[in-house]
Structures are given as structure tokens and as C-alpha cells.
Amino acid sequence: MKRPFCVILVIVSSLVGLMQLTHVLQAAPAVAAPAAALPSAAPKARAIIQAASFPLHVNYAHNWISGDYPLQHTVYLTVTDPAGNLKAHGAVQTLAGGSSHGGDGFFAGSDSDWFPTVPDLAPGDWVYASVLGTADAASLQIGAIDGLLDVAADAITVSIDAPWLLPGIVNVDCHPWGAPGGAPGYNFFLRPDGGDRHVCRWDPQTEWDIVPGQDLAVEYYLPDRSSIQNVFRLPAPSVSVFQDNAGTPAESGNYRFTIAYSNWGDGPAENVVVDSLFSPADLAFLTYTAPFTHVEVAPGLHRWQLGTLPANADGKFDVYMQVLAPNGQLITHTARITTSNPYNTSYPWDVTYPWSDFVAVNAADARAMMYAQPFDPPPGGTMTFLIDACNWGATSSGWVTLTGTLPLSTTALSWWSSSPGWSGALAGSTVVLTKPTLGDC
To answer: What is the CATH number of domain 239-358?
Structure first.
């Protein structure tokens, strides 16, 4: 669905005031989702520590809880902190293969499973589970799994801190989840006193050369087959690129590409570069809105140097081009992103985003509407002109010029736009703004 392009001009009466120009995309109004009808929290098991009639599995690094139980049952879950304060409760269904450990059971790891939201699981928390219509129940307390990951030595030093399990010992696994091509896991026993330690080590030549961004899981087991997991890794970036476009390209018109970039990894991405690749016979570069260093590497290859992109950061900018190809010809444009970080975890399809479309006969239809706020300002007051300018046509437009002539005895001081790509100048009571192509309505 096309969305309107809104331009705001703020103008003053008399000799004082402000002129603005902005672009507003009208999104659909937010609709509140109905509250999930969750059952009351299951009563806390008060009796025996670690007592369980079915196994529970907890990964407190990734905040999920699973369990082994037959099909077609509803399981109520409750999580409290060590003092017994409620953190979250929820209800899940048992499914075929629903357990994290491969058998029938349940898995709770999304907001839809919990109220008010997925709990932030931590060592010392209690997990309670009960099965609707039965007397079956389970509970466990989360013990701390500490690990010192040394990627240079391809090893991790592990200890377990769950003193309520003493004087017993616990069975522990090192899982090489992030190893490409597979690697051996290691099984051993530890006293859960926080001081007993074991080193899991891999041969980097024949087993696993650990690098940042790869997960290494450690899991310890209870006598009833319940288990606790923690996951270790060194931060690594994960960059990606995406591009949006402005409808159908028009013969002899201009075209806008919106290039969106991101780093959804947990580590910074250094020396990030975004490229725009196209055929110079089909498209001619006009301008861009990015605040980064830009170079034309070669005909049909333009580059922006973003520097270091922090973890969980994103942004976007527009690139404008003139359409040189004739009606009916297929044109292409590719956005590409790279980083010098050797441990970038992106997939190949994350770092390249191609686009193509056929050129059509120019059918642009630029229109504008204007509103005044307030309609009759007092002398010396301010007047805001809201201008909706957009393209109602079936193709992209060419250069657009918006000329505003202010009422007598008014002066425009400045203008601005939240929609990138506009440029212009003020001259007394006249404002002239231009843009390479106008957005769809």
C-alpha cells in the first residue's frame, strides 16, 4: 500500500518566524493485541529440593526452559528469584519432538509462552512445572556454570557452583555447538562447589580452532536427567545490507534506492564499506544522503566508508540515479556490505542484496496539497504551512521542484525536512525546493 509524503512548511507573518519542510510516512494505527489468557501461576513446590517427576532442561544463557513429557498435555511454568519473588509464569503444550533434548515434550522460549515476558533466567532462580489434570510436577534450582574461554588455546576451563547438590558430584558435558564440520564433545565429573575445575581442550588442526562468534555450551545433569546449560562465546559482528526502492523505474526519469545496513552481532564491525553496483549504461549516479565518505571506485561502482559499526547498530541512506535505459529494458542494482573483521558471522545472502525491474513509460503524477496552521495568525505570530507532496503515478518521477510564494508581509527564515534528498534556498518571501524524485503516495 502506498503511503503519503508530507512536507511541512513553517512560515511567519510580519518579520519574524520559521519555515520547515518535512516528510511524514503515515503508518497504520497500532492495534493492541488481546491479552493472553494465561492460567494462574502454578503453586510452588515446597518439599524436596530438585524433586521431579519428569526432567526439566534450562538454558539460562538463551533464556529458555524445556521438559520431557508425553504428548497433548498443558504444562504450567513458574520462575522465581532465589527469594521466591515471581519473575514470570506461563503455559505451554507438549508436542512430538518438542523437548530440547529430542523427545516429546515442551519448549518455552518466546514471549507468547510467558507473562509478562520471557524471564531473564539467572543462577539461583527456581523453575517450577506442573501438568494440568495430573499430579505430575517438577522443580529445580539453577546452578551457576562458570567458564573461562581461551580461543588462543582452543580451550575452556569449567566449574559448577550449586552447593545444594553437595556432597554429590555432577556429570558435565562440553558441547562444541559452534564447531564447523563437527568436533568431539567431552564428558567429565565435577564437585559443584565452584572450586573444582576441568579443562575441555580441542586440537585446532584436527578438531576445532575456536574463533569469536562460535558457541561453546556447557551442561550439567541431575540424577533425574534434568539439566542446566550455559553458553560461552567471544563477541563477533554480523553485518547485513538491504535495499528498498521507489516503485517502477520510468524512462527518462530518476530513481531512488534506499540502502539499509546493520550489524546485528554482539561485537563491533570495523572498516565497514557499503557498495552500490550498477550498469553505467542503464543508470547514472546523481546524489546521495549518507553522512559518510563517498568515492566512485569505477563506472558503476560507488562506495561509502562507514568506519566502525557498533554491535546492534543500523542505519540507512538514499541513493538517487537517473534512468538511462529505454522502455522495456531490465535494469539491475546491487547493494553490498563488507567489514575487515575476520570473524564476521554473516551468511553470504546477508551481505549482498540484488534488485531488478523493467523500465516503463514515464507515468509520474506529482501532486501537492497545502494546509495552514493557524489560518489567521496575529501580527508578529507564526504560520505553519503543511504541504503534502507525493507521486500518484505508476512510475518514478524525474526532478521535482516545489516553489512556495509566501503571503505579503511574511518572511521565511529557514526550512527543514525529515525526508532526505530535498535541497533548496530561501529568498525573501519565496522558497524553492528540489528533489531528484518524489516518493509514492
So the answer is: 2.60.40.1530
